[in-house]
Amino acid sequence: MTESEVQQTSTPNSKIKKFRKRIFHPITKKNKDEQQTSLLQEKKNKTEKPIRNEDYEATGFVIDPQDHLYQYWLGIISLAISYNFLLIPARYAFTELDKNYRYIWISLDYISDFIYLIDIFLQSRTGYFSHGLFVRNHHVLQRNYFLSRQFFVYDLLSIIPTDFLYFIPTFRFVSIIRSNRFIRVNRLSQFQELTESRTRFPNAFRIGVLSCLTLTLIHWNCCAYFLICEHLGFGSDEWVLPASAHNETVAMLYTYCFYWSTLLLSTIGDVPLPVTRSEYLFVLFDYMIGILIFATIIGNLGTMISTQNQSRQQVREKMDEIKRYMKFRSVNRKLESKVIKWLDYLYMNRQVLNEEMVLNS
Hints:
- The structure is a single chain.
- By secondary structure, the chain is mainly α.
- Among the domains are: 46 residues; 146 residues, no CATH class; 49 residues, no CATH class.
- It is 70% helix and 2% strand.
- It has a two-stranded antiparallel sheet.
- It is flat and about 90 Å long.
- The termini are far apart.
């Protein structure tokens, strides 16, 4: 055979090989994935413990997450978390506030820690549904909770006794060392979701939550502004607090800082221009946070308004369909007016138009 004939015979063979590879490779890969999935499922079935009837029997004190007592407890733990979120930054920034009421703050700190500990116990006794049945065995609940990510990532880290650092002179009664209490914020979100699903006024509750979140951010920014002013020195330039701030009360200083923070985060402006680089960076960061807050508020309000108007919009669409139908059937004006009034009556009395019931009657 000549060289040209060899090339002609090899070319179809190579094409056939490529075609086979392109056709059969995905099938082989799919079968391989199915085999791996089946092996993983077999391993999972071997490692999972069999379901026992004893797991669903009540063996002690167990909390039902659908009960109102569970919601009340979430409200109590939310108060403790909110206390830490608001007072720890304020006490760290305004040292006079911490010194004047130190014994009160220490008492409230340990009360909140005690609430955190009770919350760990109650979470270990909170039942859950498994395979359609409610697990009430407290031994099973405790084992699952203390081996869960919730305990190690959130609850355990948030209760580490960092107060022992008070014995070090550098950290003597510095409240910021208790910032690990912020980690329990997931319980605050659980309370929000549960209350929002059960309240009769969900939109008003959402507005209240959004307002509290905005005020908390303004409060944190207020404390940060005071710390920066104290670090740069009162009266060092026009952007920071004046030199007379040393003689002002804590209430007056906090009021001015809160006012300044509100102006900046609301993007209203009307504040002294920054001078140093750190001041410029802080103002730019505040403007970015303010834009996000403004966008979040507008988005949430738009969602609430659209939700409120959704039922009315459905009635309008149904009314337009009925009007078109009556026009197509040449219904007289008097009957058309009666039908429209009847639809308005249904909407005003929060009743739903059931077409099947009307047709059957």
